[in-house]
Design goal:
400 residues, alpha+beta, six-stranded mixed beta sheet, 18% helix
Length: 400
Amino acid sequence: MSAPLELEEAQARLLAMLEPGASNPIAVNDSAGRYLAQPVVARRTQPPADLSAMDGYATASEGPWELVGESRAGAPFPKALSKGMATRISTGARMPFNTDAVLIQENARVEDGTLHALEPPRTDYIRRAGLDFASGDALLDRGTRMGPAQIALARAGGCDSVVAYDSPRVAIIECGDELSENPAACGSHKIPAVNGAMLATMAKNAGGLAKPFGPVSDNMAALVGAIEEASEGNAMIVVSGGASVGPHDLVKPALEAAGFTLDFWRIAIKPGKPLLVATRPSRNGGDTVVLGLPGSPVSSFVTGFFFMVPALRRLAGAIHCLPQAVPMPLAAPLPVGGTRREFLRAEIGSDGVCPAEVQDSSALVPLARAQVLVDRPANVGAVAAGTFVPCYPLENGAIA
């Protein structure tokens, strides 16, 4: 049996198997969560003209100034001003022609139609045309995920549609005789099925469209049938449970019976060692990829975070697919580490990250409260409080 792969090697091998699907135009307002297949290019300049950044007065040359009107946002003063003239102006309004500075209202005094300055007007209170972007500028790169700010930018650039990749479809098969589909009606010999719903939510957050299957019993024919059904119309299949080496862990032989070839099995992390990846040629060209995750909930979450989510991002068209670690200080010391690279569930406190006392792979309370995964190398020595350690932010609690 070959040695388990290191995390980064296994991730690279999985992502190398995957390519984004088709792309189509979509209304900007409907593009949230989608990845761009083409860059977004500005069709207009922002701001389109010099605008005031403050409420006050637009002045021409030096004062005192004769007040001759007003420029409001959406209703600009229509004429050019001569030297010694000024208009009332509001934030966001266009600077009248020939004006060169803004006197903020706190520094202004008006007597009998004449404007006097308590302090000189300033040119840095003007937002110059093109301050944000100019027509023809590339606003968003291919592979960018559309969110609130990206939608706002595309609309500001004069775009009512973008070209985005289709959301990838993923089938999620949950395995185990012990699983009860209904958590409210679960006998003492059963446990509620949680991984399917958990992974489906993670898939949705990654830009995928998840279709659940199961729970599927620990039966070869049932599992092969579920794999065959899940192969239809889905870019990837995720199987939770049954990927280990027990007598009832049937995922590997079921995949082989369904014509899949194992690419790799087992990775050198804790939790989540018994992860597998297998492929089979697809009827539509390319390969159907199966990702087999461990059945314990925390192991399934961690491997889903490091493998399923990046894979779906790749299928959805992302350029940068892998999660990025952020250095954070430890709030308390950590003892000597184990023989495998470990990812500790931890909360963020005022003094730094606080790993949970219970790190068992079945414990959902610490997982639900965790805001980061602390990355501990294999065979690492004891670490003092205050030491900065790599942490992967989660979509829980204070960090999203």
